[in-house]
Design goal:
alpha/beta, 15% strand
């Protein structure tokens, strides 16, 4: 491989290549096996950013995304995150949305939420671990990727799946982030 190609290769592909070379195997696919949970929703959503505010857009963006997802008429599971500020943001968002019956809030371990992602038909969220769980299991996903330090980080950390819809946001295209994310959700939902 040329070094310029390696710069653009996502980490899951690099890992698979390493496994093939080191262990002389062709079977190199992602494996995620969280303990099964009762299926709650068709759509899983994570607005968590792991304490990195640069990975987040704003309250209005999140309100519009959840409103659009609710209009689909399908049950949604929204993760409260690890608590603190993220949980408070989710609580405020749910209240602003009027606590709709189709919107369920996940308040538990990440492994529990991963189980719900695996069972869902669509995952939507910021750049986070959830996108990688969805990608590994072939769940159509929309990842809003902002706050990345450089293009190489974006290339490396983007989800690696045929069903990944990555919406890249930076200062040059921030004004169209909502429109592009809603379009990506429409495309991903058609795959579900």
């Amino acid at each position: 491989r040329r070094s310029s190609d390696l710069m653009e290769t996502p980490l899951p592909q690099l890992t698979a290549e390493w496994l093939r070379e080191v262990f002389d195997t062709e079977l190199t696919r992602p494996y995620v096996a969280p303990a099964p949970r009762e299926r709650i929703a068709d759509i899983t959503v994570s607005l968590g950013v792991g304490g990195n505010a640069n990975k987040r857009l704003d309250d209005e963006f999140e309100f519009e995304i959840l409103s659009a997802l609710l209009r689909q008429g399908r049950p949604i599971l929204l993760d409260r995150g690890a608590g603190g500020e993220e949980a408070s943001r989710v609580d405020a968002l749910v209240e602003r949305l009027g606590s709709p019956l189709l919107l369920h809030v996940h308040d538990g371990s990440y492994a529990s939420f991963a189980s719900h992602i695996v069972q869902s038909r669509l995952y939507v969220g910021y750049d986070s671990a959830g996108q990688h769980v969805a990608a590994a299991m072939g769940v159509p996903l929309v990842s809003v990727f902002t706050g990345h330090a450089c293009e190489r980080m974006l290339a490396r950390w983007r989800p690696d799946s045929n069903h990944s819809h990555v919406v890249t946001v930076d200062e040059t295209n921030r004004s169209t982030a909502l429109e592009r994310t809603l379009q990506a959700i429409e495309e991903a939902a058609a795959e579900a």
